[in-house]
Structure formats: structure tokens, C-alpha cells
Write a structure and sequence with these properties.
This protein is an alpha+beta fold and about 150 residues long. It has 5 helices and 3 strands; from the N terminus they run αααβαββα. The chain is flat and about 95 Å long. This is Protein JTB. Keywords: Cell cycle, Cell division, Cytoplasm, Cytoskeleton, Membrane, Mitochondrion, Mitosis, Signal, Transmembrane, Transmembrane helix.
Length: about 150
């Protein structure tokens, strides 16, 4: 008896591509971990508040029109706070979330959820009425046929 244990060309190609991809990912990770220059560049480009302790020197405030266009920190939330990093003694700006903005977003979410709940409640009531009508019609036809 002879068994057919051959691997198809398609399966072999897929395996070679997969193992090649895994090998390149592992090799790339090994090379990056030994490259200290790229780590230094990342450390210089990151804000000081991500790598060291800081003190908030100006509370969270709404960005002006000019700040919203000029400062990338204003883009995510529209609010910014000034911080002072303790080690480097640098003043930087950081995006923040204000209490009034959070309050407004909360009530907007609550209103949306209430509207969705009312919509689905109306759909349930109308569907139940339609099913009740169908059941009544079915019972009426059964009584008439007797």
C-alpha cells in the first residue's frame, strides 16, 4: 500500500510565505531593539509630561480660535492646560477634558439613549398590536368555521 503524503504546491507556497513573514518580523524586532539611536530620537520628540512628572500651572481652559488652529494640543478636545515638567523645567501645553465638556457630552449621550429607548418601545408596542390583531383574526376564523 502506498500512501499519498505529498504536499501540494499551494500549501507549500503559503507555508513559505508565512514563515518568511514571521522571520522578517522577528529579525526586524531584534534589529530595532539594538538600535539605541532611534530610542533617543523618540525620547526627544515625546512631550516631557509623558516621560516625567509634571505640575499643572494653568487649569484646563477652552482654546481660542487662534489656538485651535495653531496648536496641535487643542485639536483632540478643544481644551488645553499649561504644565511644568519637574525635571526639565519646561513649560508645555497638554490637551485636557474639562468638566463642562464632560457634562455636556454626558447629557447628550443620555438624551440619545432616551430617544433610542422611546423609539424601540414604540416599535415593540406596534409589533405587539399587529401580532394581537393577527391572533384575533385567526381565532375569529376558527370560530366561524365551526
Amino acid at each position: 500500500m502506498e500512501s499519498d503524503c505529498r504536499i501540494s504546491a499551494r500549501t507549500l507556497t503559503i507555508c513559505v510565505i508565512f514563515y518568511g513573514w514571521i522571520s522578517s518580523r522577528l529579525l526586524g524586532a531584534a534589529v530595532l531593539s539594538k538600535d539605541n539611536i532611534s530610542v533617543a530620537v523618540v525620547a526627544e520628540s515625546t512631550p516631557c509630561w509623558e516621560v516625567e512628572e509634571f505640575v499643572v500651572s494653568a487649569e484646563c481652559a477652552l482654546c481660542s480660535d487662534f489656538q485651535s488652529k495653531a496648536w496641535p494640543e487643542c485639536t483632540p478636545t478643544g481644551y488645553v492646560e499649561r504644565i511644568n515638567c519637574t525635571k526639565s523645567h519646561r513649560d508645555e501645553y497638554k490637551s485636557c477634558r474639562s468638566a463642562s465638556m464632560e457634562d455636556r457630552l454626558f447629557w447628550k449621550f443620555e438624551g440619545t439613549m432616551l430617544g433610542v429607548a422611546v423609539l424601540f418601545a414604540l416599535l415593540v408596542v406596534s409589533r405587539q398590536r399587529a401580532l394581537d390583531r393577527l391572533a384575533s383574526e385567526k381565532v375569529r376564523k376558527q370560530i366561524e368555521s365551526i
